[in-house]
Amino acid sequence: MDIFTIWLDEMKKALRDDGVRIFFFLVPFGYPLLYTFIYNNEVVHEAKMVVVDQADSYWSREFTRRVNGTADVQVVSTCTDMKEAKTMLDEKKAYGILYIPSDFEKDLYRGKQTTVSLYVDMSSLLYYKAFLMSATEVSLDIGKDLRMHSSPAGSTQLDKIMVEPIPYDSVALFNSQNGFASFLVPGILILILQQTLVLGIGLRGGTEREKNRFHTLVPISKHFNGTFRVVLGKALTYLMLYIINCIWVLWIVPRLFSLPQVGNPMTAVLFLLPFLFACIFFAMTLSGIIATREAAMVYVFTSVIMIFISGISWPEPAVPPFWKFVGLFIPSTPGIQGFISINTCGASLSEVSKQYHLLWLQTGIYFVTTCLVYRYQIIRCHKLVVRQYRYMKMRRMLEVKQAH
Amino acid sequence: MTLKEGLHAIGAISKRELHLLTSTPTFMICIFGSPLICLIFFLSLMRAGLPKDMPIAVVDLDKSALSRNLIRQLDAFEQTRVAFNANSFYEARREIQKGNVYAIFFIPQDFGKDASSGKQPHLSFYTNASYLIAASLLFRDMKTISILAGASVGQQTGRAKGYTDDQIMATLQPIKVDTHAIGNPWMNYSVYLNNTVLPGILQLMIFFSTVFAIGSEIKYGTSREWLTMGKESMSVSIIGKLLPQTVAFTAVAFLFAAFLYGYNSFPLNSGWGPMLLAIFFLVIASQAVGVFMISVLPTLRLGLSFACLFGMVSFSIVGFSFPVAGMNPVLQSLADLFPLRHYFLIYVDQALNGRAMIYTWSEYIWLLGFLILPFLVRKNLKNALLYIKYIP
Known about the structure:
The complex is a heterodimer of chains A (about 400) and B (about 400).
Chain A: H1 2-16, H2 18-39, E1 47-53, H3 58-69, E2 73-79, H4 82-90, E3 96-100, H5 104-110, E4 114-121, H6 125-150, H7 157-163, E5 168-173, H8 180-211, H9 227-256, H10 265-289, H11 302-309, H12 321-327, H13 332-344, H14 353-403
Parallel strand pairs in A: 1-2, 1-3
Antiparallel strand pairs in A: 3-4
Helix pairs in contact in A: 1-9, 2-8, 2-9, 3-6, 8-9, 8-10, 8-13, 9-10, 9-14, 10-13, 10-14, 13-14
Chain B: H1 3-23, H2 25-45, E1 54-60, H3 65-76, E2 80-86, H4 89-98, E3 103-107, H5 111-116, E4 123-128, H6 132-160, H7 165-172, E5 175-182, H8 189-219, H9 223-229, H10 234-263, H11 272-296, H12 300-317, H13 329-334, H14 339-352, H15 361-369, H16 373-376, H17 378-387
Parallel strand pairs in B: 1-2, 1-3
Antiparallel strand pairs in B: 3-4
């Protein structure tokens, strides 16, 4: 029964603590919405481009027109020289220059390969991608049309082979428009769950230390006598709160913004269970190490590191061995990898067994460390009580002696 | 209060603050610990500039000399590593789902025979776009190899028909697109990310440290003592308190710059002056925002929460990964409220592109504009310092 006393006590305190309310409720509620909102346009539409058309001919204008027609690029202006175009880049009126040389049309008609040049402002890689894809697509298109024009009777099978001996096609799996939100947000969501748990539990620990008489993590009470009881009772509170958070963060929010969600919900649940356990015990262990309440929040800077260690943006094989090793100790590393496999790529549990086992392993290790932390705190609390008792007793005896 | 008295008070408070900074571990973590950890982390993570040897799976149903040659060439690319030879597409797809490979290169049956007999066999490649960066880099390699394969077959066919190589290229690809990535021709990710992520970490830590310094005075009830030392003047008290942090953070920030532009020789087309100035402005602008945070929410834990949340969002809203111009218009105007956003725009103009100052000066003014914030809420903070009693 003591587990439930502790569970109830923890639940009440967590709901009453300002800082905890921010990290257990406000952030898990608001942050996923904010982040998804930021990335939700998925791709850059209508990236602004300026064209320097020195050929000023039918085909060069056609090239410009078609580039402008693609969804990703908008031609904001056509200039006659590079200097003018460069000024537009300087003024941020455009982010890329398409340069069509004066020989463009002449070369095309003479059957000579011609080159158009693309100059891209590298403030964002997405501009680069948008310009390159659109220009390449149009150049291939126009190439085909030209060949039809130059030899209308030549569209025999043999010519087609000559023009396109090995056609190829490419498919972007699981995120067909190569969208930014579909790629980054699932990882961020998992990280939000872990980091808010650490910060919330850290704040709770800090409050306890400030309120308790001997600045220990556990109060003096007979209910708080057994290590397992305290650890399990508290963990139960956090688990219950975070099951609700998971539903909002990982199920409702992705739906609201139609992010990819092809996984089997049951698989996701089975996978998230050890993830939550690992996060909770990870957080409880950390809360035992960090002594003051507010200082714990410096921890937030690790989020940036953790998202990169997880391999979602910087590919995991390229992460140096030392950081990979560090990543093994963080629940979000297998958490993000596994969740993306399940949720975005539709993997089954057996396909993410590596991550799944690692999460259970982390759960086990952090459970033991949490118990050690709490055991130490309980013993310390006892010692302090006993010392205080002896001190009081001694003083009383002295007082009695003096009275005599 | 005369100027001399004011300076004297600032000096005295700074001295007191210096003692607090060096004796509180939290400050040491904020100012030195976490920025240096992040510096080491990010520079070592992206040392290579671009990720190398990313694993892909190959499904070779042809197993001819031509297909094996293609695979060998693909593997020879610096960024691609053929890690898995699958017998079927299904098997390869499972490897993707497991997260073992990022892409599949599919060579159909009779590919070699069909290619040489002019039957136009299809090459297909699939990328796991839920890992966008790996996917787009691998896409590039697989596309190149497909084009090369086509070109070599086309060349053979063309030569057989008696065309010259120039004619063949003009037929295969009449228009070539030649790209120039201005300022970062190597497409180096370290340049691209670290120029913004590292100052972002600094901004976060400055918010935190500023709020912590002032909030602690309120929490531990020492704010009256502090104000008395500042002769009851808010400006004197705050300047005295934040000055040691300004110096320390500026030093750390300059160290960052030395690593980025000196040690790693990242593009610095503007020369050192404009960037060092921008970094210094970023430091003081972030401090001003920090003062604003604790003035609006004058309890330590709420102020710090504000600092954490605001500081973390700036990494996304600054627009170095997903451009601000591509975001919702509401977010586009919100982005201006983050000092890091203006720093990023200065970096793009100055270090990356080496543009004339006329295009950038307004961003410097923006950063200085943040210094007005503390004045708007000074009454709020003064009340908090004088009357709030800390309730745990």
